[in-house]
Design goal:
The chain has two domains: about 80 residues, no CATH class; about 110 residues, no CATH class. The protein has a four-stranded antiparallel beta sheet. Strands 5-6 form a two-stranded antiparallel ribbon. A hairpin with a 5-residue loop joins β3 and β4. By secondary structure, the protein is α+β, with helices and mostly antiparallel strands. It is extended, with a radius of gyration of 23 Å. It starts with 5 loop residues before the first strand and ends in a 26-residue tail after the last strand. About 45% of the residues lie in helices and about 15% in strands.
């Protein structure tokens, strides 16, 4: 689609990436040749299967770990090496949002197997998350003011906010305007009280081979 990208890769699974890692170089332009399996997939999807040029970038972490990035931004003068550590870090809020969808609201845990059940569950859960985020966004100033007398900056505990919102959303569609305002005000008060501290420079080791959570129709969570 012509979009640029920057991603972290495992150099043990990429032949060209492993060569780059062992070379000790800071960055390098390399040609990636599709594997036979990739050729077949490209043919099935009608995608060009010609070799592509990418740029490998080495980033040394404070922990001593080496991070290998691959990007389509090959112009080293326009996009210097030092840009990419911060650029890659920008993916963190996106990953956290995916984690919220997959594990907090269990978006893959459907109540039925029909297409209508899947559509209803999916859109209901996305609406639930978005509505919680909208209400939560109005509490930032109050939470910042609350943080002034605390050791660390605080932010809303979004998991707890989702729990509080879960049993409220239905009422939102069956109340008068005045009652709705009252409900939102109560939710905001709870959100402001239910916060978590933001501890700077916290680092955790990457968890490899995380077991995929499975859901069973015989056992339903409370909705």
């Amino acid at each position: 689609m012509g979009a640029n990208f920057c991603a972290r890769i495992s150099y043990n699974q990429w032949k060209e990436a492993k060569k780059f890692y062992l070379s000790g170089k800071k960055e390098q332009i390399a040609k990636i040749i599709p594997t036979p399996q990739s050729f077949r997939k490209c043919h099935q999807m009608g995608i060009d299967n010609k070799p592509i040029k990418v740029r490998f970038i080495r980033v040394e972490l404070e922990s001593g770990e080496t991070k290998i990035l691959v990007t389509s931004l090959k112009d080293m003068a326009k996009y210097p090496h030092e840009y990419f550590s911060d650029l890659y870090h920008l993916r963190w809020p996106v990953e956290e949002d995916y984690k919220t969808l997959k594990y907090r609201i269990q978006i893959e845990n459907f109540s039925g197997k029909t297409y209508r059940s899947v559509y209803q569950d999916f859109h209901a859960k996305v609406f639930s998350k978005n509505f919680t985020a909208v209400v939560a966004s109005t509490t930032k100033k109050q939470i910042q003011a609350k943080s002034e007398n605390l050791k660390h900056l605080h932010q809303i505990n979004f998991t707890q906010a989702l729990v509080k919102m879960k049993h409220t959303i239905v009422h939102v569609f069956h109340q008068t305007d005045n009652k709705l305002i009252e409900i939102i005000c109560k939710l905001r008060k709870i959100f402001i009280q239910t916060t978590e501290s933001v501890r700077p420079n916290r680092k955790f080791p990457r968890r490899h081979r995380v077991k995929q959570q499975r859901f069973f129709y015989e056992y339903k969570t409370n909705r």
